[in-house]
């Protein structure tokens, strides 16, 4: 490691400057934290739009390219997103009002279930939990009022997102180089971490969102054809639930099927059950095809990262929570590797498990028969060694 990057010597020689740096970082965090989720949203958008920025820079200056990409992002992503959320919000209020006014014919649904061999006393169940349901509806109403009251703050936040997006697109490469220069870590380790975090970002931000969008559009189209009301609200709900582990599209098409059956649309209800199962199980095809296999992105990291990220970062935590946990594991692996000079436990076993489906690592595995991370191993194999 370069002598100028040796933390112990540097801390000993410049304790005052070190304390000033720590205080400056803390003050900067105090400024960023109130709008942290919007800043992170800008980071996510910049990560997705960066390949487009690179292509445009072949023909125009970086500033012009950034302005074009930001304008396209606002028109193609932000404005449609705001519109969809507004429509979904209105339809969601109608659904809440419908349930609150007791237009839900629980007895009819119960009779229908009993005629199909399912003896369930929904009326008693509904009456026994009526207070809880009313409390939940009241909480939803209060949350809706808070959202409306927070519109000015949301506008400021989206403005911050737009400027963060522009700044990262134009100067993102130089920012990454500056961070690598500032952090007292060996360049080779930083490059290794950057590569692993990039794969985590791809899996969580690009891959998961793509799978959720595909399934939401598929199910939304089926709901529209079946004549289910509040299609926009249910489509947005499908997108959100598909991002959540253990729930998925089940949380939308099962109630929709019950609604269709209860309203006498037996054929449409049965068709929705079949189509809903097709949409749900398509996840097993789309997710491996788009995301592949990333060693730092396992089930535990996904589940804890998503729900913990929601609490820590807000809605953007759905995507960044797993990235934070996965990146933490990568950093600790690198720390332990430097300290011990050994690979993480399980690295050899993971390497023997095989490469990503459809990757170019098959030939590398066949020729070496061992873990990567040495000389000339292909890119898809590298996360196995970093993450174990």
TrEMBL record:
Residues 342-388 are annotated as: Disordered. Keywords: Membrane, Transmembrane, Transmembrane helix. GO terms for cellular component: membrane. It is found in: Membrane. InterPro entries: AI-2E-like. It is a multi-pass membrane protein. Residues 378-388 have a biased composition (Basic and acidic residues). Its main location: membrane. It comes from the Archaea. The chain crosses the membrane at residues 20-47, 59-85, 150-169, 200-224, 230-251, 258-279, 299-327. Belongs to the autoinducer-2 exporter (AI-2E) (TC 2.A.86) family. This is AI-2E family transporter. The lineage of its organism: Archaea, Methanobacteriati, Methanobacteriota, Stenosarchaea group, Halobacteria.
């Amino acid at each position: 490691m370069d002598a100028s990057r040796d933390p112990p010597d540097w801390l000993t020689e410049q304790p005052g400057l070190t304390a000033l740096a720590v205080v400056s970082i803390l003050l900067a965090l105090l400024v960023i934290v109130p709008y942290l989720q919007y800043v992170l949203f800008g980071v996510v958008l910049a990560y997705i739009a960066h390949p487009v920025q690179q292509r445009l820079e072949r023909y125009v200056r970086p500033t012009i390219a950034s302005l074009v990409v930001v304008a396209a992002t606002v028109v193609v992503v932000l404005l449609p997103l705001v519109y969809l959320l507004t429509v979904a919000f209105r339809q969601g209020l109608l659904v809440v009002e419908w349930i609150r006014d007791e237009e839900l014919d629980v007895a009819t649904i119960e009779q229908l279930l009993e005629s199909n061999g399912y003896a369930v006393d929904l009326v008693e169940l509904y009456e026994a939990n009526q207070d809880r349901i009313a409390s939940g509806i009241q909480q939803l109403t209060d949350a809706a009022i808070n959202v409306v009251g927070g519109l000015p703050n949301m506008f400021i936040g989206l403005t911050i997102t737009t400027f963060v997006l522009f700044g990262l697109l134009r100067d993102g490469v130089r920012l990454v180089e500056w961070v690598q220069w500032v952090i007292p870590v060996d360049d080779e380790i930083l490059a290794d971490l950057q590569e692993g975090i990039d794969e985590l970002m791809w899996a969580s931000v690009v891959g998961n969102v793509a799978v959720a969008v595909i399934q939401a559009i598929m199910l939304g189209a089926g709901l529209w054809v079946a004549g289910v009301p509040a299609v926009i609200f249910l489509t947005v709900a499908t997108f959100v639930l598909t991002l959540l582990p253990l729930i998925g599209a089940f949380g939308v098409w099962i109630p929709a099927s019950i609604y269709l059956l209860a309203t006498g649309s037996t054929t449409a209800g049965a068709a929705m059950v079949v189509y809903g199962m097709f949409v749900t199980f398509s996840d097993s095809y789309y997710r491996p095809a788009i995301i592949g296999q990333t060693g730092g992105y396992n089930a535990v990291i996904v589940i804890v990262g998503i729900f913990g990220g929601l609490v820590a970062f807000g809605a953007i935590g759905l995507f960044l929570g797993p990235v934070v946990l996965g990146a933490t594991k990568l950093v600790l692996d690198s720390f332990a590797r430097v300290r011990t000079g050994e690979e993480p436990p399980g690295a050899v076993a993971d390497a023997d498990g095989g490469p990503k489906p459809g990757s170019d690592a098959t030939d590398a595995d066949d020729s070496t028969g061992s873990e990567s991370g040495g000389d000339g191993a292909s890119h898809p194999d590298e996360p196995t060694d970093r993450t174990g």
